[in-house]
Write a structure and sequence with these properties.
mainly alpha, Growth Hormone, Chain: A, 424 residues, single chain
Length: 424
């Protein structure tokens, strides 16, 4: 029988880096790819936001994952499916119906990725003691964000280099996606070797929920759940729109209100200073929450997630293309995102507490995905209507609902004490 916490220093980084790769490919890299292949902002915003749907709906099948098989087997099979789905994107890009075929492949990757999230998060919560869950929160979130920057940075840099090398955007992105599929397959193999078979332990098996309906009923009976869900839906209201239009803004021609940066430049900015500041923000956020509790830092962290968005508005309104100004904007925005998201992650873990924690966490993150999907779907239309300047001003205003709901959020008296371990 394998004891909890065994090998966590090896599997936590690998598992959460793997979890982040398909998400960033589906949600973020797809936006840049379609922009470089000539798809309009309105279509990019609408169709790539629909790709959030599996993360919204994953609570519907999370009890099935919870009740059948082991979390380890689930995430290994899902990661294998993701590898083939991304390979499908790369192989079908050169076709005349690439928009339809690649969206279909991204859909497959999205459903497998959402299921992988359920299994990975369940494995984390079942395979670690409560103390170690708190200890590894910072590492877990940092490696997830490193994966996002790998996608938004290194993979995009590769695509930009290949665009210049081939002089053909379609061929460049085809090769890039095939390389991404190989990376995903490599990570799947790594997880097979580093992730212990925790669920052979009888003690862990006994933590599974009793039935399908009971999972949902118990979640919606949680205290103050209505306000908590409203807060989850609104927490990333501004970011959900910014993330869809930030890359088009940097890539678009100056005549269209953009900054006309190259694909390689955008990837380099996010893949260097972006990754450093994102990681620092996340680690600092985890340290401060573990030291002082979530209640003290929730307001500063909500502000840190949203206030930097004003810098994008300044860039768009002043029409500056200064590399210093752009890098400064990315530095502040990425640090703020890492710092602010730490509070959100801890809040979701708190919501999931209980015997059905795997399914409850999936339900909570499903609402988070809904809060990302719906605003993202209309972000392209809002941008085309208001222009980039007006759009980013609107993104700043979108922070107000979450700030309003803060005064109604309840915090357990011992919550900060419960997470008093070092979470780096």
């Amino acid at each position: 029988m394998i004891q909890k916490d065994k090998g966590a220093w090896a599997w936590v980084p690998v598992l959460y880096f793997t979890q982040g790769i398909p998400y960033v490919l589906v949600v973020t890299v797809s936006v840049i790819m379609y922009k470089k292949l000539g798809i309009s902002n309105s279509d990019i915003g609408l169709y790539t936001s629909w790709l959030y749907l599996p993360w919204v709906l994953k609570p519907l099948w999370s009890p099935f994952v919870d009740l059948n098989g082991t979390k380890r087997n689930w995430f290994l099979y899902m990661q294998l499916i993701i590898s083939f789905a991304i390979l499908g994107v790369g192989l079908t890009l050169p076709t005349t119906i690439f928009f339809t075929t690649t969206l279909a492949c991204f859909w497959m990757a999205a459903f497998a990725s959402a299921t992988n999230d359920i299994a990975s998060d369940g494995y984390y919560m079942l395979g670690l003691t409560e103390k170690k869950q708190a200890f590894f929160v910072g590492m877990r979130s940092t490696f997830y964000r490193l994966a996002m920057i790998t996608g938004q940075g290194l993979i995009v840099i590769l695509a930009g280099f290949l665009e210049n090398y081939y002089g053909d955007n379609t061929k460049a992105w085809s090769v890039t996606m095939i390389a991404a599929a190989i990376l995903m397959l490599t990570l799947t193999i790594a997880n097979f070797f580093v992730a212990p078979k925790y669920e052979t332990s009888e003690a862990i098996v006994q933590e599974k929920p009793e039935g399908f309906l009971e999972v949902f009923i118990s979640f919606f009976k949680k205290p103050n759940i209505g306000i908590a869900l409203a807060f989850i839906l609104s927490y990333r209201l501004g970011e959900s729109q910014l993330v869809k239009m930030a890359a088009p803004f940097l890539l678009d021609k100056t005549s269209a209100g953009g900054l006309e940066y190259s694909t390689e430049a955008v990837g380099t900015i996010y893949g260097t200073v972006g990754v450093i500041m994102l990681s620092l923000g996340g680690i600092l956020g985890g340290i401060l929450i573990s030291k002082d509790g979530l209640k003290k830092w929730m307001l500063p962290m909500v502000l840190s997630l949203n206030v930097p968005n004003a810098m994008y508005a300044i860039l768009a309104l002043t029409k500056t293309t200064s590399i210093v100004a752009v890098v400064a904007t990315v530095v502040v925005e990425q640090f703020g995102y890492g710092f602010g998201f730490a509070a959100f992650l801890i809040f979701l873990i708190y919501i999931a507490e209980g015997i059905s924690k795997t399914s409850h966490y999936a339900i909570a993150t499903g609402f988070m995905a809904l809060g990302m999907m719906l605003p993202g779907m209309i972000s392209g239309y809002i941008q085309e209507w208001l222009g980039y300047g007006g759009f980013f001003v609107w993104v700043v205003i979108a922070a107000l609902p979450a700030l309003f709901l803060l005064k109604f959020i309840k915090y357990p008296a011992d919550y900060g004490k419960k997470l008093n371990a070092d979470v780096i």
